[in-house]
Every structure is written in structure tokens, then in C-alpha cells.
Specification:
The structure holds three protein chains of three kinds. By secondary structure, chain A is mainly alpha-helical. Helices cover about 80% and strands about 0% of the residues of chain A. Chain A contains 15 helices and two strands. Chain B is an alpha/beta fold. In chain B, helix 9 packs parallel to helix 17. The longest helix of chain B is centred in the N-terminal third of the chain and has 29 residues. In chain C, about 80% of the residues lie in helices and about 0% in strands. The C terminus of chain C is likely disordered. At the A-C interface, helix 2, helix 3, helix 5, helix 6 and helix 7 of A face helix 1, helix 3, helix 4, helix 5 and helix 6 of C.
């Protein structure tokens, strides 16, 4: 016999039934809060910042003149120092990404395919743990490590090598080392996840077909791991591109972020800061589109 | 199972409620009782276009609003957590229980402070502004004028600090002077057995080649004025009179000097600890500094061998004012704080801890007999507290504007161009 | 041979990762305020000072509060979006994943300046709420990625079966969908909390005088005398974080186990 519930839906079920028959409304209900949040708060703010890039600062009053102008972009293109800073920032970001990938791959491979489950768990934890240590404190620790008369310098001096602090110390090299260090876990984890997902059967099939370790690695593992590599590179590249704290602490050099930070802080020149920050935005937009093509978004 | 979920949802609601209540406390206070009205007559929520010619200075202090949010140099709002003998926050709260919560946002440069105040209407009640921020804040109507009668110790302030140009405009007092100091030249005595006496130790490439990479300089756009000050003495043909008001030719010369200096600078220091760490390790051995760093280095265990001098060319400096924000949500507490900061006891502590000349000479009696960690004998003589000639010889930070203020008219380089040039120098 | 090389590489990498942490731990016991090398004297006094410091406690409480609230918000928003993207085809669906990753992909200073400018323009005072808004915004993508990865791995037929058997949408969600998502949600929550806890750049632009732990550290690293206490606090955080790291690892091993099954 039919139960009364099934015969005539009541209460919640009526609503759910109606929603089921009107999937668009259901979709809307799901999306309204996040879309509202992202649309209004985040994209609204970004749009406002984007608008600032086309405004200018009246030096006399300190007010933002809300009239369209390309003066900020002119200034970026005219003065060579801004281009130099962009090239420097992108170059370091690229170096950091490549080196991190090279360092991350072996340990990720070991974790994913060689280590025993218990060891894998321990390794996973040991890679996660440094992420929880404060970014600032880790940077300061590197300052101590690389400083003149610091542990490394002292150690090298014991062996008669005096030049460590001239090479490292406060320098672009030190800064690059710190960047490589800080973002390394962000590269290891996606590669590990990607490598782990490769089914054993693929590797066995490759071996069955006559490929030994090297070709299997080049032709099977690497292409399958590529999306994960690219996903990890999004982090290392983007985080280096936009950083201003590590350059300020460990080196004497300016990154895009330092100029942006100084502009909005020193001169209250948010229009110029916004305009200059469109450069890394543009760079990242291209990078992300390329990354999506590689399928990296599934590996984040 | 459902009981646990119920607990979880209750916890979530509680947390959200707690966060909401802590952030809504401030707006509620500003809509509070009429007793706050007297202090709020100069406190607005709509910005006036510029400092109005006729304003009503704040003339009374009502009851405190319960909290105080400040923007200040690090070291100006001490509660004993840095060096336990230097604490003027807890005594302030003890004396003013209706201002029981004091929070501070510290900043590294005047520019940061200006931006914080300009962007954070309603977030901060007041600021300790140096001259290169104070006039901008006044011009842009960010701060409110006060009636000096509201500050009991105002009449005791050193005469030349009662109405200085950096905080008194058109007869209106936009705050109370608090202390001043200079940007001295610090060097490691073990690396410079013959002490330097001139700024050429950091500006002359011939001299600097012996210690290339060990020179340090302030990471602030205002440092261009230090170069200009040097050129005032060493290139008199440029005719520099005011290192902050430079014609294009003078400005370009200063920038050229800084570009010459650049290869020798190992680090432009961004904070006290940055410079300290560099002098400790020997990464920096000579450069411009504030007394705070010198005190800290000498106070270490074992002390770092440094000395700081005023070179023959003179020095740039800063003269600080506590100012009340026009958008302050707790103006009464801010005024109480301002009054507190110029009492002799507090002035003595601040002066010693930071290493600056106090604005209230009555602090000297306390300073000269102090036994606190940073005490020095004859403090007030050493810091020239009442020496007007010495004060006038310092080129205090101020905001460069187009109007040179003299016969040159409106031909000087304004501050917004200083930043672009400084960015170029650092490369 | 290659195994040995891999082992060596792993060991070296781990050493590299832990070197600064070791330095932090070492200097937490340094008797002197100076951060010079070698350490002359060791002492426990900074631990006492850190324990007595009210500002540390306040910063910790604020960081935890902000982290929890931002995570909850991110969970809500991220889950809603993942369900929508997984179940429906709609205009702009492909662009959505790109849009969500922007808060993390774009430099923090841009997100920070943008939010700062908005809050300023609309007269919103900077405080705990504005910090939470900033954090939730970049945590959403973390939740979204975890949840949608799990949704994609689970089969739709279970939900359809549940509905066939008479459960309504809410019951299906409660008894069928949610348990499948549970570990992904917890893993995402842990990651989001970690992101929020250590975030500095966006926070400096959206905070007033509030101090989260990273801001506290930034402020105290400015002052020469405070560096030893900062080392103690950092060491404490590292040790404390073993707990969530352990849980994060347990959950992701569940995840990978589930993934292996579904292959």
C-alpha cells in the first residue's frame, strides 16, 4: 500500500521537488551566495583597483583624480628602471620555479612510488610541517644563516674560505635561495599527488612493451606528471612574482612588489601602484591560461 | 550524532557572534551618549575639502570611550614588553581607566603613517607624525586642531616647540610636540679606528671604496634630503639652502650623488632590527641611524662596539607631533593620551628609551638622575633639549612641495617626484 | 642505484627544509638578544617572557578566531560552488575555476590593495571582520579544489539510487553525499586554516591595529629586543602544528586510498 508520504509530498519535499523540476533555480540557489561574495567583494574590489590604474593622483591635493588617463602606463614605459625591475622579477621567479621543480621531483617521486606506506606518511608530514612555521621567521632564520659571521660563513672560515659572506650575505643570491626554500613544499605536494595518481598498470605495461627505466620515465611518467608540475609552478612563480617582503629583508634589490608597495605607501599613489601591479596580473593571466592548457587546474 | 552536530552548530554561531560583536563595538561607541558631543565637534565623518580657515579647536575632554587605536613609530607606545623598565601604557591605563584598551599600528616610515591615516578613517584615533607627514595631514584635513589649554603640560614645553611650523598652521595647533632627534652617523668603532667626522664617509666614493658594500642608508624617499644637505656644504655652487626645497638642478645633483653612493650600499635599512642585525653581523659598518639603534646595540650582551656622531655638515632630523584624527572614534581617549605623553615622567621614559630630545624640559630633572637601562649622564645637555640654535641647525623632515617658500617661487620638486627618482636610484 | 640516489636526494631535501627550523629552535634558547653566531650562552628565559606576554596570547586567539571563521566561510562558499559546477552545465562554468583561483594566483599585494581601497571607499573600518573577509576570499579555492576533486571521483549513481529509494534532496545530501565529501572537507579545512594562519600580506592591508600572529611577528621582528621572543613563539607554533599536520596526513592518505579504489 502506498504510504501517505509518497502520495502527497509535504513540506520540504514539496520545495525539493519543485527545485528538482526547476534546475536553474536550484543552480541559482547554490551560486547566489558565492557569486555574490566573489562578484561583489572580490571582483568588485579588483575592478575598483583596475579603475584606479587609469586615474591619477593630484600631487597638490593628494586626491585621486577620477578621470581617464594613461599617464601611469606612460611613466612605466618611459622610465627604464620599471622595465628592469619587471625583467628581474620574472627572471628570479623563473629560476626559482625551475630549481624548485628540480629539487622537488626526486623527493616527490620517492614518496609516491618507492617509499613504503609508513615512510610515505612520515615524509608527507615532514613536508607539511615547515609550511606551518611562519614565513617571516623562516626568512629571518635564513638571514642569520647567510649573514656575515653566521653559521655558514663561520663554517667556511674554519676551512679557510673567507668569501662566503661576499657571495651570499645580503644579496640577490641569498634572496633567490630563500625563495627556493620557502616555496619548495608548494612544489613537492602537487608533484607527489600527481605522481601518486599514475596507476602501476601503466608502468607495468610500459615495461612489458620493452621500455626500461629511462624511457619509461621520459615517455610515461614525465608526461603524466606534467600537469602536476605545472600546477606546482603556478605557486612558485606567482608567489615569487608578487613578493616584496623577502627582497626587502634578504637583499638590497627591488621587485615589482616593492615598487607597488612603496607607491601606495610613500606617495599614496594608488593609481600608479594599481597600474604597475597590472604587469604581474598580465603575466599571471598568460601563465594561468598556459597552465590550464596543461591541465594543471585539476592538480591544484 | 545529532547532538554533536547541534553542539557544533552552536559553537559556530557563538564564534560568529563573538566576531561580529567585537567589530561592532566601535561604531556603537560613536553613536553613543551626548557627553561625547563636545570633543566631537571637530571630529567629522565627511571630509572637508581642505583645512578650513576658521575652525573650532577641540577645547574639552569628555569621558573616555574605552579604547584607543594609535599609529606610531615603534618605540613610542611602550608597555614594558620590550624593556620592562620602559612602560608608559600601563600607567596611562591606570590613570585613565576609561581608556583601558590601547592598541597601536607601528609603521616604518612617515609615508606609511600618512597612508594609514588617510586610508583608515575611523580605524585610528591618532598618530605620532614627523614633519614630513604632519603638514600633509593638516593640509588634507586628516587631523583636528586642538586648544592647547586642553593639555595641562603644554605651557611647560620648550618655547620653540609650542607652535612649530610642522604642527601649527594659521595659528591653529594640530597636535602637541612630543620629541625630536637627528639622523646621526653610526659606525663600528672596531672597523673605523679613526672616527669619521664628515658625511663624506658615506658619500665620497674614494673613501667608501675601502668598505664597499658595508655602507647602509635609510630606506626612505626622504633620504634624498640627506644627499642635498651634503651638497649644501660640498657643492655650494648649487646654492642649496633648504634640502627639502630643491630646484630641478639641485634635485638632479642630489640624485646623482645617491646613484654614486648606490654601489657601496650593502643594504638600505627598513627597520630598527634590520639595521641592528646588520651592524651586529658586520654586514653594515657605517651609515645613518637613529639613537634607538645605537642604544640597542650598545645595550646588547656583549655590547656591539658602535658610536654615533653628528657630522660637520649637520644632519637631517625629525620632530614628532601627536595628532588627533578628524575621524577618531575615541577622541577623548586620544586627547588624554596626548596630555599624558607630555607629562615629565612619560617624556623622560620616551626620551631615554628612544634616544630623543623630549619636548618638555621638566623631564630633565628625571632624566639626569635616571637609573634605567638607557640612561646617560647629563641627558639633556647631550641631547641639546633647550638649545634653540642646535634645533634650528637640524634640517627637520618636511614634505617637499612645489612652492619653494622663497624667491624661487613654485619651481621646487614636489614629493611625488621624489619617489620616482628614489626608485630609480635603487634600481 | 637509482634508489640510493633517490634516498640521498630525499635526505638532502629534508635537511634543506629543516635547516632554518633548526636555527629557529636553537636561537629560541639563545641567552643574548643579539642574533649573532656562535651562540655563547643558552637559557630558557625567553620562554618565560613569551608565556607571560599578553600580546602573544591575544595574537594567537585572534589568529585562531580569524582562521576558524574564514575557514567556515570558505567551506560554505567553496562547497556551494563545487556542487553547482559538478552538477550543472551553465554559461561561464569553465571560467569559474579560473576566477576562483585568482585570489591565490594573483599577488597578495593586489588582493590586499583592492580590498583596502574598497573598504576605504565605502567607509568600512578596518578590523577583525575585514581580515576575515580577506582570508575567506583566498581560502575558497582550496575548498573548491578539494571538494570538486572528491565529487568527480565519486559516482553519481549513489545519489540517484538514494533518491529512487525515497530520500529527498536534503536527506540524500545528509546521508549519502556529505559522508563521501567529509574527509575532503576536513582536509580542505585544514589547508585553508593553515593558509589563513600564516597569511601576512593581505592581512596587513585589511587589518586595523589588530594583530594576528604573523602581524605580531612582523611588528616584533622590527624591534631589536623582541627577536628572541619571536623565535620562541615560532618554535611553539612549529611544535603545535604537528597535530593538524598529522591529521592532514591521515586524511589525505584516506583520499589517496579512495582514489586507488576508484581507479
Amino acid at each position: 500500500m502506498t504510504t501517505p508520504e509518497l502520495a502527497r509530498p509535504r513540506g520540504n519535499r514539496r520545495i525539493f521537488g519543485w527545485l528538482h523540476r526547476h534546475p536553474r533555480v536550484k543552480l541559482g540557489a547554490l551560486l547566489v551566495v558565492p557569486a555574490g561574495w566573489f562578484g561583489v567583494i572580490y571582483f568588485g574590489s579588483l575592478a575598483l583597483l583596475f579603475a584606479y590604474a587609469f586615474w591619477s593622483l593630484d600631487p597638490q591635493t593628494g586626491e585621486v583624480v577620477k578621470q581617464f588617463t594613461l599617464a601611469n602606463f606612460q611613466r612605466i614605459l618611459e622610465k627604464p628602471v620599471y622595465g628592469t625591475i619587471v625583467i628581474r622579477t620574472v627572471a628570479v621567479a623563473a629560476i626559482v620555479t625551475v630549481v624548485d621543480a628540480l629539487i622537488a621531483f626526486p623527493i616527490a617521486y620517492y614518496m609516491a612510488r618507492v617509499a613504503s606506506p609508513r615512510r610515505r606518511a612520515l615524509l608527507f608530514m615532514s613536508i607539511l610541517l615547515p609550511l606551518w612555521a611562519s614565513y617571516l621567521v623562516k626568512t629571518y632564520a635564513w638571514r642569520i644563516l647567510l649573514a656575515p659571521n653566521g653559521p655558514f660563513d663561520w663554517g667556511f672560515k674554519l676551512f679557510g674560505f673567507d668569501g662566503f659572506s661576499d657571495i651570499f650575505g645580503i644579496s640577490d643570491l641569498s634572496m633567490t635561495v630563500v625563495f627556493i626554500y620557502i616555496w619548495l613544499p608548494y612544489m613537492i605536494l602537487p608533484i607527489y599527488a600527481g605522481l601518486e595518481r599514475i596507476p602501476n598498470s601503466y608502468l607495468e605495461a610500459s615495461a612489458d612493451l620493452g621500455a626500461k627505466g629511462g624511457p619509461t620515465f621520459r615517455r610515461v611518467v614525465l608526461p603524466l606528471a606534467m600537469p602536476a608540475l605545472v600546477a606546482g609552478s603556478i605557486f612558485t612563480f606567482s608567489l615569487t612574482l608578487g613578493d616584496y617582503i623577502i627582497p626587502a629583508l634578504v637583499s638590497n634589490t627591488q621587485f615589482i612588489g616593492n615598487v607597488v608597495f612603496a607607491s601606495q605607501g610613500v606617495a599614496g599613489d594608488i593609481p600608479f601602484a594599481a597600474a604597475y601591479s597590472l604587469v604581474p596580473v598580465g603575466i599571471m593571466a598568460i601563465y594561468l591560461l598556459v597552465a590550464r592548457h596543461f591541465g594543471a587546474f585539476d592538480e591544484l | 550524532m545529532s547532538q554533536r552536530k547541534g553542539l557544533i552548530s552552536a559553537a559556530i554561531v557563538a564564534i560568529l557572534a563573538a566576531a561580529c560583536s567585537s567589530t561592532s563595538a566601535s561604531p556603537a561607541a560613536s553613536n553613543g551618549p551626548a557627553s561625547q558631543a563636545p570633543a566631537s565637534q571637530a571630529v567629522a565623518s565627511e571630509p572637508p575639502a581642505s583645512a578650513p580657515a576658521s575652525e573650532t579647536p577641540v577645547a574639552t575632554i569628555g569621558p573616555g570611550e574605552g579604547e584607543l587605536n594609535l599609529v606610531a613609530w615603534a618605540g613610542y607606545v611602550e608597555d614594558g614588553s620590550n624593556v620592562k623598565e620602559y612602560d608608559w601604557v600601563h600607567p596611562f591605563i591606570a590613570a585613565n581607566p576609561d581608556c583601558s584598551k590601547v592598541t597601536v599600528k607601528t609603521a616604518d616610515t612617515s609615508d606609511d603613517m600618512y597612508t594609514l591615516m588617510a586610508q583608515g578613517h575611523g580605524t585610528y584615533d591618532g598618530v605620532s607624525a614627523s614633519g614630513d607627514a604632519s603638514n600633509r595631514l593638516i593640509d588634507r584635513a586628516e587631523v583636528a586642531p586642538i586648544d592647547p589649554a586642553v593639555i595641562p603640560d603644554f605651557k611647560d614645553l620648550t618655547p620653540f616647540l609650542q607652535s612649530p611650523a610642522n604642527n601649527t598652521v594659521n595659528g591653529f595647533h594640530y597636535g602637541v610636540s612630543h620629541g625630536w632627534g637627528g639622523n646621526t652617523l653610526m659606525y663600528r668603532t672596531d672597523k673605523f679606528p679613526t672616527p669619521p667626522t664628515s658625511w663624506d664617509a658615506v658619500f665620497d666614493p674614494a673613501k667608501m671604496s675601502a668598505y664597499k658594500g658595508k655602507v647602509t642608508a635609510y630606506n626612505g624617499t626622504i633620504y634624498i634630503a640627506d644627499a642635498a644637505l651634503y651638497l649644501k656644504t660640498h657643492k655650494p655652487e648649487l646654492g642649496i639652502t633648504d634640502p627639502y626645497e630643491l630646484t630641478q638642478e639641485q634635485f638632479d645633483a642630489a640624485i646623482a650623488l645617491l646613484k654614486e653612493q648606490r654601489p657601496f650600499v650593502g643594504k638600505y635599512w627598513i627597520s630598527y632590527a634590520d639595521e641592528d642585525a646588520n651592524f651586529e653581523s658586520g654586514a653594515s659598518t657605517i651609515g645613518t641611524t637613529w639613537q634607538y639603534q645605537t642604544n640597542a646595540l650598545k645595550g646588547e650582551n656583549p655590547p656591539i662596539p658602535v658610536e654615533a656622531i653628528v657630522p660637520t655638515e649637520g644632519m637631517t632630523g625629525w620632530s614628532d607631533t601627536w595628532m588627533l584624527s578628524r575621524y577618531a572614534k575615541h577622541p577623548n581617549c586620544m586627547l588624554k593620551w596626548m596630555a599624558w605623553m607630555v607629562t615629565p615622567e612619560t617624556q623622560a621614559q620616551v626620551a631615554e628609551n628612544f634616544g630623543e630630545a623630549p619636548a618638555n624640559p621638566k623631564a630633565c630633572a628625571i632624566l639626569n638622575t635616571s637609573t634605567k637601562p638607557y640612561a646617560i649622564p647629563n641627558f639633556c645637555d647631550a641631547y641639546h633639549v633647550t638649545d634653540e640654535a642646535f634645533y634650528n641647525a637640524i634640517a627637520f623632515w618636511k614634505t617637499p612641495v612645489r612652492d619653494c617658500g622663497d624667491a624661487r617661487g613654485n619651481t621646487c620638486v614636489p614629493y611625488d617626484q621624489w619617489l620616482a627618482a628614489y626608485t630609480d636610484v635603487k634600481g | 642505484m637509482s634508489r640510493i640516489l633517490l634516498r640521498v636526494a630525499t635526505g638532502l631535501t629534508l635537511g634543506f627544509l629543516y635547516l632554518p627550523l633548526f636555527v629557529i629552535g636553537l636561537y629560541a634558547f639563545n641567552n643574548s638578544r643579539a642574533q649573532s653566531w656562535p651562540i655563547q650562552e643558552y637559557s630558557l628565559k625567553w620562554f618565560g617572557e613569551a608565556a607571560a606576554s599578553t600580546s602573544v596570547r591575544d595574537a594567537f586567539v585572534l589568529s585562531v578566531t580569524v582562521g576558524l571563521e574564514a575557514t567556515l566561510l570558505a567551506l560554505l562558499l567553496g562547497s556551494l560552488v563545487s556542487l553547482a559546477v559538478h552538477r550543472f552545465r551553465f554559461f561561464g562554468r569553465g571560467a569559474l575555476s579560473l576566477a576562483l583561483v585568482l585570489p591565490i594566483a594573483l599577488p597578495g599585494i593586489i588582493t590586499g590593495m583592492a580590498l583596502n581601497a574598497s573598504f576605504h571607499n565605502f567607509g568600512v573600518p578596518f578590523g577583525t571582520l575585514t581580515i576575515i573577509v580577506g582570508h575567506a576570499t583566498f581560502c575558497v579555492v582550496v575548498v573548491y579544489n578539494n571538494v570538486i576533486a572528491r565529487l568527480r571521483r565519486s559516482s553519481k549513481s549513489i545519489e540517484e539510487a538514494s533518491m529512487d529509494l525515497g530520500a529527498d534532496t536534503w536527506q540524500t545530501f545528509r546521508h549519502v553525499t556529505f559522508p563521501v565529501l567529509r574527509t575532503a572537507i576536513v582536509a580542505a579545512a585544514l589547508l585553508a586554516f593553515a593558509l589563513s594562519f600564516d597569511e601576512i600580506i593581505v592581512t596587513t592591508f585589511t587589518a586595523g591595529t589588530q594583530e594576528t600572529i604573523p602581524i605580531w611577528i612582523l611588528n616584533h621582528l622590527r624591534l631589536p629586543n623582541q627577536r628572541p621572543i619571536v623565535n620562541v613563539v615560532a618554535l611553539g607554533l612549529i611544535l603545535l602544528s604537528v597535530i593538524p599536520v598529522y591529521f592532514a596526513q591521515r586524511l589525505s592518505s584516506d583520499t589517496s586510498g579512495a582514489a586507488a579504489i576508484n581507479r
